[in-house]
Amino acid sequence: MLPQTCLLTFHGIGAPIAPLQPGEEQYFVGEDVFSKALDLLPVLEKAHGVTIELSFDDGNASDYRTGFPGLIAAGRTGAFFVLAGRLDQDGYLTRRQVREMHDHGMEIGTHGWDHVDWRTLDAAARQREFVDARKALEDVTGAPVTKAAVPFGRFDAGVLRSLKAENYAKVFTSTSGLAYRAAWFQPRWSPTRAFDPARDLPRRLALSQKIKAAVFAALRPVRYRYGAL
Questions:
Q1: Residues 67, 70, 72, 74: is their CA dihedral positive or negative?
Q2: What letter does residue 171 receive in the DSSP assignment?
Q3: Which DSSP string do the residues of 44-65 spell out, in sequence order?
Q4: Which of 28, 42, 153, 228 has a beta carbon 3.0–4.6 Å from 12's, enabling a disulfide?
């Protein structure tokens, strides 16, 4: 069976408020572009026989200002991967906003604590990024946090094995491609400011992309040595 889930990851919508790390601004899309994408999703899902799911990384304020109400208006839900260390900071989500989104059916996942490269962590940093960040978000929502999104999309076998050892139910990356809904490893695609939903989305849903994703899904556990855990 071929993968039938397309995961889109937004990092920011509209103009950034908080200072950004180098290269991050290119991942902010216009509010009009986000709205067009939402309108187009049902058409594409029907035409290509797929499910398109939206997620949001970093916990920028636009998640609540634009992403959350857009999903509600469209009758959809989404997953918000929040940086616990930036809660209540200017330009980022507040604890109250995260709780409200969760209470309205949005998934809250962890993106870690400090937005650092997880390949470089020592034992203390792994505790903060994989354990403490999740606990902080669970304290906010009052519910288990079972999903993690890898910062920068940078990972190796060690990162994946550590996340497996911490019993995360699913791990989301920036590895482009379609996903199997039930799989532990979830590839996603991150639109940039040049994103044109009508142009870019159909080509990512083509049969050739489904076949390619199926091959990568079969090889990935062997390559990164996490399948046996």
A1: negative
A2: E
A3: HHHHHT-EEEEEEEETBTHIII
A4: 28
How far apart (Å, rounded) are the C-alpha atoms in residues 20 and 38? 26
Report the DSSP beta bridge partners of residue 67: none
What is the rounded CA–CA span in Å between residue 210 and residue 110? 28
- Rounded distance between C-alpha atoms, residue 102 and residue 69, angstroms: 13
Counting every residue written for the chain, the total comes to: 229
Dihedral angle, C-alpha 129, 134, 148, 153, nearest 10 °: -30
Angle (CA) 81-84-86 rounded to 5° is 105
Residue 79 belongs to what H/E stretch?
Answer: strand 78-82
Residue linked to tokens 């918000």: 80
Q: 68-100 pLDDT, tens per residue? A: 999 999 999 999 999 999 999 999 999 999 999
* Rounded Cα distance, 17 and 159, in Å: 30
Residue that has been written with the tokens 């979830």 in this structure:
186
Residue showing tokens 């058409």: 43
What's the Rg (C-alpha) of the chain? 17
pLDDT of 220: 92
| Residue 227: per-residue pLDDT | 66
Report how far residue 53's alpha carbon sits from residue 10's, in angstroms, rounded to the nearest whole number. Answer: 11
User: CATH homologous superfamily for 5-224?
Assistant: Glycoside hydrolase/deacetylase (3.20.20.370)
Q: Are 197 and 33 in contact (CB under 8 A)?
A: yes
Quote the tokens at residue 173.
């990356």
Low-confidence ranges of the chain (pLDDT < 70): 227-229
